Amino acid sequence: MAAKLILLMLLQTLIQYPQMVADGLDEDTRLRMELRANLLDREMTRLLQELEQSSLERSVRAWGTLLWVALQQEHFWALAVVLGLLLWLWFIRSRRSRQPDNNGEEEEEEEGDNVVIVDQEDNEDRNEVRNVGENEEEAGNDAAIAENGNDDGNAVEEGDDAENDIGRILEGQIQWPIQDLERGCEMTSDLMDIFISVFGHLLSNSSYPVPQRAIGVGSAFEGWSPREEDVVYSVLVPLTSPPGHTFHLEMDTSGQLPGRNFFIRVEPVCTCPREQQDDNVLCSLHHPEDEQRRNEEPNFLNTLCTGSYLDVEKTARWFYQLVRAVWVILPHSQGWQLVLLPSNRCCKFKVTRGTQSFTVEILFGVQQGVSDIYVSSQPTEALFTPSTVWPETYAVAEMKFFRHIAKQAPPNSWHLKYLQLLARAVVGIGFSTYMMKTIVMHLLNTIPVSRWGSRYILLRLEDSVEYLRCSLLEKHLDHFIVGNQRVPEVISLPLEVQTAEPLNLFHYLAENPAAHTQAISEYRNLRYRLKIMLLEGH
Asked: Which of 49, 109, 244, 478 has a Cα at 20 to 30 A from 82?
């Protein structure tokens, strides 16, 4: 205990009296020093209290022994002296018991001073960002310096001792959400397997698309969740064209919607056997009279299509009908209650049993060739998305990327906790969870997975925030999949996606100066939130 106490005192002395390395310290260094000092002060206080408590207990036992001896020998004056010393000891202990309260008040005052310091630093950041924003070349230099700084920081961190592993303390201090995502994903996958099996049996001989096995996508199937409660388990159900038809993808070149968007054109194909060409086996393409008669009945074209194009909203309503009809024959209906939730471009429902519940979101789409890229029913960033527009989705590719990282990462990797922490920090501000996820994916693809443990928490958070800062200054944040030549080989991409111009997730900042100013303000807010979460744990 004494050796550990002396070690902590030496560490605290080094923090309070750091060696001068420059005329001033940058904000990241100040944050690291402040966090280390805060955590070590708490540990020092706890150890001192334990030491005082053990000393007082030994003293009480010793004085109790003297009192017993005095009573045995019937020495009245010795007994009086012992009682006087006990009263003095009780007085000293009562004074010391009030010291933690005073320490708590001092800590609150120090935290209040820290808030003032952060406000002053934010004012300095505002002036700095304005100056840098006027010079695009300087922004590019900052990005390059940031990358070099990460390498230097990693080299310094390798020399830290185990006693300085702040991540071990933060692991118990930060309030991590308690979620059994793995169990929820298993239940969702099992339920969807039953749904798809029944769908396939019912639609096998029909003129409707046949749903294929669902693919788990989104944050829950990647191993994390941006929300502490109400986790949504998203799945993508690929659709194959019905017999006698084929799906042809046509890219939307109007430029009215952000990203890459497509139309799914439904085209008839000849299904006549080559060896038989009589009237009894002619397909709809060669027998228009039968085709006209079938068009007067409910079928795929007049139920799910608008003109010659597959309609997202009509397909969603069709899925709702299938789920409602099939649910009553599933074994789950005996113990679970199904509640359909409203949505125009997907099929969303919640199943509950007592206090247990989980929400499932079924997206549907068409695969591009044999790749991991699909066009799906997910909405776009636009306020209005036409019902015949199917945005290109990269959810399957991103899910496979996180699984690829999980296979390479050590068991104690914190890469998902970093993402969880950033996702919690951006709640209620202008940066979306997907933007922070994109930054983390870029860093995961650059920094070795061995350097994503708990001891690197400050470095990785600094990397993420610095990446965001440089992207804001450049008004450009590249999409992780589109146009990225460094995507792992386990992810299959079409050639046109690999060679496409990278999508800019910050395109709106270049088009709207007011939005860029607001984003800079929200960036400072994000830094402050992260600091509070690290110092206070929430």
From this structure: 49
